[in-house]
Amino acid sequence: MSESAVPFVASTLAVPPPSSGIGWLDEARRENLAAFGEAGLPDTRVEAWKYTALRALSQRSFIHGDAQAATRDIDPEAFALPGLDGPRLVFVNGVFRGDLSDLSALPAGLALRPLSQALAQDAEPLRFALARRYKERGDAFAQLNAAQAVDGVVLRVAADAKIDVPVRLVFVGVAADAELAWHLRNVIELGEGAELTLVEQHVGSGNARQLGTLVADVVLRDGARLQHIVAQDASADATLVHRHALQLGARAQALLHVLELGGALVRHDLQADLVGNGARLDTRGVFVPRGRQHIDTQLAIRHQALNTTSDSTWRGVADGRARGVFRGAILVAPGADGSDARLNNKNLLLSGSAEIDTKPELEIYADEVQAAHGATVGQLDERALFYLRSRGIPLAEARTLLTAAFCRAVLDDLPNATLREHLASLLAIRLPV
Amino acid sequence: MTSERSDHMLGDTGATVLRDNAEVAEALGRSYSAGFVTEIESTGLPPGLSEETVRQISAIKREPEWMTEWRLKAFRHWLTMPQPDWAKLKMAPQDYQAISYYSAPKVAPKSLDEVDPALLETYEKLGVPLHERAALAGVAVDAVFDSVSVGTTFRKQLADAGVLFCSMSEAIREYPELVQKYLGSVVPPGDNFFAALNSAVFSDGSFVFIPKGVRCPMELSTYFRINAQNTGQFERTLIVAEEGAHVSYLEGCTAPRRDENQLHAAVVELVALEKAQIKYSTVQNWYPGDENGVGGVYNLVTKRGDCRGADSKISWTQVETGSAITWKYPSVILRGDRSVGEFHSVALTHHFQQADTGTKMIHIGRDTKSKIVSKGISAGRSNNSYRGLVKVEKGAEGARNYTQCDSLLIGKRCGAHTFPYMEVKNPSAIVEHEATTSKISDDQLFYCRSRGIGEEDAVSMIVDGFCKQVFRELPMEFAVEAKKLLEVSLEGAVG
């Protein structure tokens, strides 16, 4: 079957990509869409999609963009984070909602606005990020996003500015009449020595059978420090494909916490390039698919400079008929001496119909390195269960306690206590009982 | 037969190379000692591959009709398959029409006593005991020269015990019902590109059958040698251990040094029935190419064992130091309840060698266990990848796997990679994987040096320690060989 006969591809190609009136941008959109049309959706023979089949998705047709997003009724409680005040950008079905956002008191050194506004004022600084052509096999959603995204977030922190309030980016999916697809593009940059805490929330309300794609470029200049939290709790019917591409300059440090809780089919590509000497990246994540959920995390860390460090701890819990997929690839490029790379991924398989597929990878081209990874798939420790039960804790409760403790390990080093507790309770709600 | 490169012959030093450490350093001259060419008259098929070639091979070997058909079916399937490209290997495209698919010494020996002395000498040089020395070593050997088996030792003693050990061609003629029952039952002819090619054109190999309850009285061994130019070697080995049978099997390989890449695409099938145990050890030392990456054998091998019966065990041990390219994943299908699979591997690459090797453990039966220990050593400008799959199927209640993969880097221009896949569908299974990559630490080196150990010896000592876990699994004779082979292969890697 030719790609253009696949309903998903056909419905995408049926309408021309949105026009911005900016020559280079429209050209990039056209070319990315053409590339998407040519290659179509990847099948499981493409290594990056080996464990995530898109057959069902490919049979669906989507309308790109929600015309009524501006007027949809949203309850701000859905994304409230009590105790955390700060600037906030809210998108509903991929459309910026000024009424729900809070840009009133931006701290000095922080520039934050929707991509649509930034493009209208001065598109040139965004050219490098937005003119990109995605060509890798399996880049279908990035191509689609590049062709269709008309909004998103542009965030810049000036050099040496230390932003002491967390900035929140909220993405809300709500049910629409048709099957809806929305696309957002985020461009984030921390200047030299800048500091920022960024909280990214995905929430859903109603049975939003929609597709969301989000592509974010995050650049940390020399000495910048970023704490980045991604709390994904999308609607149970949603398909979400998000990608974060980080680039860390010399001595830059990023600490990422990722919670993958919601969504029917979720794919997260997390790519980091450590391009400056002494850069450090720590990632912590947990994915908790249950029911028929399918959550696929693809972590790729590339050490490309001297004395770079990465440390990753990921946990997975799969229950019901769910499937958890994890790939943790570490590359140490030639000459990246002094690299220290560590990764571990532990998984709990709680049901006979669930599946965990994990694939830690090391690709090492330098010899002055320390690299180690470990992965396990197993179940709760019988002895620990017995211990709890011998102290009068019922089996079900003991299981929940141990599962929660297993997952909470990834939140331990989150510095902001309010945030930590909030994420822990979010996790607790979603954990299988 | 050409001899233009026979000037590289190391002559009489060859046989002792693997035996005596003191002579190693001297004799080596840092090169491949098995790289000589034997001057022997041979006959063969001209290069080229077609249904006609397949029929000819089958005819030369006087095979029954069903075998010819089996080959043709495999060949037709092969024509429809693309060459796989997923491995982390840079491989020059192969011209399958430029290879000769059959080469044999002109005079076929009837017994070991009639084997051409030049041939015997070849094996003598390589340190393979075919004759009286075999008695001392206590190992039964099947020697395969290019496409044919030139002799199998200890046949009588083995026959007394009920063990069948002969060349594959002989087995097809003598024991067709056994061959028909088991050939292709573990690696089907259409399994993969190279297995299909092998199924179509395989020329010889070893056949081992250990009947019910028999413990094979000695180690069995096959020695493979590619000699002729522009030939590919496609051997096929089948080992069947019936209920309660035990066997330990060793395999060794060498080839002359030649500037063009020779193809070696073998298939090995192991079948272990209830309570049977098979231990398969390989020391692979095909010609690795020279220090500029010219020449060398392309070693593209499918090896798979099937633990068909309950409580059976299959264990693979490999030491891979040769070949320009190694593409090889000895696997175990753990079908029988409580069956056990093991994989112990040392893979060393130097200069421009590339290895993409590892294993697959497929847990199907209840309470099945597997253990994987892989040690990769990269030096020069080589690339060494571990690629492995541990799969636990839904019914594999209580399955257990432990995998350990360590890589050692020697030098700045080599690569060491690990690609483990874990697919788990049973909640009572426990699967663990650990991997590390590092170089020989300066502390370790300094410690050795401060005690008066030269740098090269110190490296060799540390590497030996790194590999100990695997060497321990090898039969003693082989362990000594493997250790020395490693020292030889690392020559010039330091400094």
From TrEMBL, chain A:
Domain SUF system FeS cluster assembly SufBD core: 178-406
GO biological process: iron-sulfur cluster assembly
Domain SUF system FeS cluster assembly SufBD N-terminal intervals: 25-169
Entries under SUPFAM superfamilies matching the protein: Stabilizer of iron transporter SufD (SSF101960)
InterPro entries documented for this protein: Fe-S_cluster_assembly_SufBD (IPR055346), SUF_FeS_clus_asmbl_SufBD_core (IPR000825), SUF_FeS_clus_asmbl_SufBD_sf (IPR037284), SUF_FeS_clus_asmbl_SufD (IPR011542), SufBD_N (IPR045595)
Family as reported in the entry's similarity comment: Belongs to the iron-sulfur cluster assembly SufBD family.
NCBIfam families (UniProt xref): sufD
This protein's name: Iron-regulated ABC transporter permease protein SufD
UniProtKB/TrEMBL annotation, chain B:
Ranges where the SUF system FeS cluster assembly SufBD core domain occurs: 224-466
GO biological process, one term: iron-sulfur cluster assembly
Boundaries of every SUF system FeS cluster assembly SufBD N-terminal domain copy: 156-216
Homology family: Belongs to the iron-sulfur cluster assembly SufBD family.
Identification of the protein by name: Iron-regulated ABC transporter membrane component SufB
Natural source organism: Rhodanobacter glycinis
